[in-house]
Amino acid sequence: MTTEDDQRIAELLRSVPVPESRVDLRRAVRDGRRRRQRRRVGGIAALTVLAGVGVVSAVQVGGTASPPAPTVPALAVSPAETGSAAPRPPVTCQASWLPQPIEGPVAVANRVDPTGRHIVGDIGTGQEDGRVVLWTDGTPVVLPAAARQPAAVNTRGYVVGTDGDGTGWLYRNGKLHVLATPPGYDAVLVHAVNGRGDIVGTARRSDDSHQAVLWSTDHPEKYRLIGQRGSSATGITEDGTIVGTMGERPYRWSPQGVAAALAVPDGYPRASVESAQGEWAIGMVPGARTGSAVQMLPVRWNLTTGAVSLLPFPGANGIAGNGDVLVADGAPLVVAPDGTSRRLPGRPEVRATEAGIYTAEGISDDGLTVVGAVYEKQAYRPLVWRCTR
Amino acid sequence: MVDAEGEFVEYVSARLPSLHRTAFLMCGDAHLADDVVQQTVTALYVNWRRVSRADNVDAYVHRMLVHKLVDEKRLSWAKVRLLGSVPEPERSPVTPHDDLAERDSLLAALARLPRGQRTVLVLRFLCDLSLTDTAAAMGCSEGNVKSQTARALAAVRQVLDVTEMSVRSPR
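Above: the input entities. Below: the structure tokens describing the complete assembly.
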């Protein structure tokens, strides 16, 4: 091999066209911040770092025209910044601990069913070894070790998820079942389950071709492919409406299987859908780019009217059946479709003085139950917020 | 503290395109490349203060990337994808025809290479890593890197020579 050949190959490798990058530096900072918190770092020192991080990343990554003042914890959205001048709804909320049946420095609640009765989470070291825990009316049950990474829980307390090898599982009445992987596919990714027992997810081949799949909690060994090649399913409502994508377009499938594209906000090339509840769905569109980093922006669809709107937050973690969006970047915030918002309170004994110390991942159908965790004393502890009107 | 974070953002912003290109050429899968780079950058953030003191930060980051890629190949199905499908690679209309053919051939050749050969090729020729750093990144011996490089180059050269002939010699 001559040097000339080497140079030619190097030049080709540098110039060969590659797909657009969708790496999100802002998200990396946010995730890294959380992971750093989980490690056994001295609390005070870690928090000092975090305040600085927020500012820097917002300036450099967020693509904002003018840098925020250095005193603003930029990754968090305070109620004042959400533009809500409306009076707060008469709702009072309280945070309570979820009991931990097993030990582990990273114990979090991830999802809640539409009624708020069933909560699912995991407890472990934070290194992908977590055991799945199901709390029903506050009482915890540890699922069999083969259940990993829970995705959703339904009104009957059935839990679904995907283990690390791409096998879907269903936990029903104390027993773990394997969800069928459609023949010809290598793996599935299970996303959601509704009270009727419909489970949705996506089956993939090693060449990344994929298709949406529907299972039933009654017959986990059976499946039905949805849509056509290139589809994916990420959410399902209680009436059986499935949401997902077809190619790069956001899509919905009626309970009868009729497909329809969802709107993409003007000026954006594509959108993905993350979850749906009632007549609402949330997802993301690619926003401003800095270099090759794209900031993903949250959007909300009204599935009845078809309207789509960009949400003025860094991210949306959940959608309730009444359209309430769970914003959980920093201190958890619930924002109603009319723009009113309520900040969820902390626990009095937790000395959470920094944004980002509480995380919230799941919200019930009425928006009144939210689940998540708090980081304090080098450990995550699971929490539930219950609100009353 | 703020300076360290600023350095991180500056470093990563500057390297993201090349990290993504590296990951894509190593695995040939746009989604996987995104996932792996996202994870690498996140891990880099967590460990930045330590990594930034390394003698060769780029080599260290490439090692993280290779390890994440191997991990991801094992566990990839449990990860949520950012978006639905693979975009078509952008092609510049001003690219001369034979260059275009050559690039397509290179991608095809890469796709046929075993993972180890593909990885050495990308690390050594795209990332310009030394023999020692490539071996460290891949967790194997320098001898192993040498032999994999030789085999990969032979395979790629064959493809490129064939391309050259078919493009340049009129039929």
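Note for the figure: Helices of chain A lie at 3-15, 25-38, 43-61.
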